[in-house]
């Protein structure tokens, strides 16, 4: 019997967690069991949820609120269709509202996975497009773009591009507007990217923010692609994972999609409720086909604990799934002094993503990009940043002075 | 300047909440302000978020974790498109991940509202369809339907219909399946509804669960409507509000839509994070066009505090919006003895919705419906249930004995 699994952390000071687990397994599948006549049980057996594991954590002298159990339940695939809304409603629909319970892990059967082509490009595909195979990549973020006209946007794009970044992403709060509609900004920015490439010798992806009504997203994406777009940014959680799944698996959408974590904080930060970041921004984003996934880094002001970051990363790159990997993009609070630490935490397959750490550079946006490029060079060559920040690398030197050195 | 507003509850033991509010108002709109040259400020003024209110709650002797502020910020409409994903990303995208913050209320401008036709039927429309204008309505829920074949489904439907309920809803975990595909179960159940109507003299709505891939939902809905469907059930949160908005405003979808709260517990129960139930299941469901909205009642085992229920109700029926009202459907743990209390809490405009309280009746499902009908009659006539539960109302009597009497 093929099943998907869900692991929950249940908090309760005195519950019989085994009994609670059984009641979830029955209640979220066949509804009732012990009352069923034997003949009926035989026909319903293939629909019945199964408790796979119950680990009770009850430390000596546990304070009220500290007792919990990690419970894993198998949900037969035959009960639900092979899409993310059906899985989420099956494993966390009604019980999300039933006391202190957090969804901490999913397990996908091969049968379920057969509906998910996964990321169209993934880490390898993005590396191939950019021709960058031997180092982490560098992304910068448009800042303060609301109200900018197309010339101001081009100007900001050019400065970022000349700094030597590999990717530039729209601000996620830039929606369709008269000043900079998506096809116009794609056209103008990609032209600026070509000009910058002639100076830097680097290719560049520009992730334009895909917005609007759900049924118009595909035509918006095609409009952007027709205008030359080579990547898209998408606020997945405001639309639903299935919308990303449909976009990413559409053969006409021929560019990588970067998933923005906007709204994710409505789900993951509570200890007792919601959905863990590793499910939300790790497992489900990759399953739905995100080529790059942004999430709050453990380094800056908008932070997520390091172990949660590592759990997201693990889900994005694990080779246990038969789909492509997704590129981790830890974001917020990133400055050049953090580059060696980011590489220690994430390895080579990471996008170093900076906003203020590029635009706020004392020598300007372009220098901000260069400082990161130099920090990555140094880290790749095993040279301490402080040492590399000599007279030939004034941008790195200024960055380390502004934000602090290697950690 | 036309703006939408968002109110947040921010928790912090020592923050300057006014400063924090200013930083949200600037950070989520124009990005920076004090650094801008005067000329730029003039052009950006119309995009700048405004702090409307900061109420700090700091009781004498507040314990750590108890200090909070309710902060309201106005977001100029010019910054975002008139759809729910854009509003949510604007007001709660990035900041949802920035510390202890909960979104507790939204305010919609007339300009923003102009994109939202709202519920197509609403309370009045549903009353008109059913011809029920002088009493609360009664809904029953299919139970344990996974694995049932079409004859078993018809049988369960008939028993519910004969009990005299006004609406019957699918189980939200019933997805497309070979045994009971939507067009088949609509056909069979609606035929059973007609037969039952001849006995009960009552009209009946059957809300069939609309499931599948996002882009196929409309065709699924039309398939169901072609087969005779007179209502739909939809797991809104697993798809996104914009999908409901598109379905409800589609002129071809000519039946009421009931919004199921599956997954809502991933957002609302935490004190410090997420989105309040009154926003999630009240304001946004009505804005997106739900004709009926289910939510956990304050009465049963899967409970929500009464004040949160009242806040949802207020948002569903408030006359301050220029769109139709949505019918409140408090659900879970409802038995006939609770009817007078439900009517005291919700008034006449409520659907009394029961699953176990109907199917678990000692005399069977049909009697379970009758017991509720009798409880509603008694409450309407101002007669105590215990008094009404005489020999002429044996079903009510048995229900009160099984689950307890009037509260």
UniProtKB/TrEMBL annotation, chains A, B:
InterPro entries for this protein: Diketo-Methiopentyl-P_enolase (IPR017717), RuBisCO (IPR033966), RuBisCO_lsu_C (IPR000685), RuBisCO_lsu_C_sf (IPR036376), RuBisCO_lsu_fd_N (IPR017443), RuBisCO_lsu_N_sf (IPR036422)
Residue ranges constituting the Ribulose bisphosphate carboxylase large subunit ferrodoxin-like N-terminal domain according to the UniProt record: 8-103
Coiled-coil residue spans: none
Keyword tRNA processing in annotation: no
PANTHER family linked: RIBULOSE BISPHOSPHATE CARBOXYLASE, RIBULOSE BISPHOSPHATE CARBOXYLASE LARGE CHAIN
Source organism of the structure: Paenibacillus chibensis
Limits of the Ribulose bisphosphate carboxylase large subunit C-terminal domain: 122-293, 323-403
Keywords tagged on the record: Amino-acid biosynthesis, Isomerase, Magnesium, Metal-binding, Methionine biosynthesis
Enzyme class: isomerase
SUPFAM superfamilies: RuBisCo, C-terminal domain (SSF51649), RuBisCO, large subunit, small (N-terminal) domain (SSF54966)
Segment forming the signal sequence: none
GO molecular function: 2,3-diketo-5-methylthiopentyl-1-phosphate enolase activity
Protein name according to UniProt: 2,3-diketo-5-methylthiopentyl-1-phosphate enolase
Similarity annotation: Belongs to the RuBisCO large chain family.
Pfam families for this protein: RuBisCO_large, RuBisCO_large_N
EC number(s) reported in the record: 5.3.2.5
């Amino acid at each position: 019997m093929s099943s998907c699994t869900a692991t929950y952390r249940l908090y309760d000071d005195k519950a019989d967690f085994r009994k609670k687990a059984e009641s979830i397994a029955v209640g979220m599948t066949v509804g009732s069991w012990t009352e069923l006549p034997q003949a009926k049980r035989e026909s319903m057996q293939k629909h019945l949820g199964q408790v796979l594991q119950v680990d009770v954590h009850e430390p000596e002298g546990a304070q009220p609120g500290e007792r919990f159990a990690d419970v894993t339940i198998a949900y037969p695939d035959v009960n639900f269709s092979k899409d993310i809304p059906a899985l989420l409603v099956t494993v966390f629909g009604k019980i999300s509202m039933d006391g202190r319970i957090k969804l901490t892990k999913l397990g996908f059967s091969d049968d379920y996975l057969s509906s998910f082509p996964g990321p169209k490009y993934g880490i390898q595909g993005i590396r191939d497009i950019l021709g960058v195979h031997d180092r982490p990549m560098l992304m910068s973020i448009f800042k303060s773009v609301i109200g900018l006209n197309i010339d101001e946007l081009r100007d900001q794009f050019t400065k970022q591009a000349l700094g030597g970044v590999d990717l530039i992403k729209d601000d996620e709060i830039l929606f369709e507007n008269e000043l900079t509609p998506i096809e116009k900004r794609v056209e103008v920015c990609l032209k600026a990217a070509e000009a910058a490439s002639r100076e830097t010798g680097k290719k560049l992806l520009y992730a334009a923010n895909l917005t609007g009504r759900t049924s118009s997203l595909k035509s918006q994406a095609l409009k952007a692609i027709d205008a030359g777009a080579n990547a898209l940014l998408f606020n997945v959680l405001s639309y639903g994972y299935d919308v990303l799944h449909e976009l990413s698996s559409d053969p006409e959408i021929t560019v990588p999609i970067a998933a923005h974590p906007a709204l994710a904080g409505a789900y993951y930060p509570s200890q007792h409720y919601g959905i863990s970041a590793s499910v939300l921004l790790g497992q489900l984003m990759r399953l739905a086909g995100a080529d790059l996934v942004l999430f709050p880094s453990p380094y800056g002001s908008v932070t997520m604990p390091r172990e949660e970051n590592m759990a997201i990363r693990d889900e994005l790159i694990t080779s246990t799934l038969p789909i492509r990997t997704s590129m981790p993009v830890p974001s917020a609070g990133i400055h050049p002094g953090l580059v060696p630490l980011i590489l220690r935490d994430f390895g080579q397959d990471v996008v170093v993503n900076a906003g203020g750490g590029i635009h706020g550079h004392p020598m300007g946006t372009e220098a901000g990009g260069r400082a990161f490029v130099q920090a990555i060079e140094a880290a790749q060559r095993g040279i301490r940043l402080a040492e590399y920040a000599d007279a030939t690398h004034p941008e790195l030197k200024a960055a380390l002075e502004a934000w602090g050195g290697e950690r």
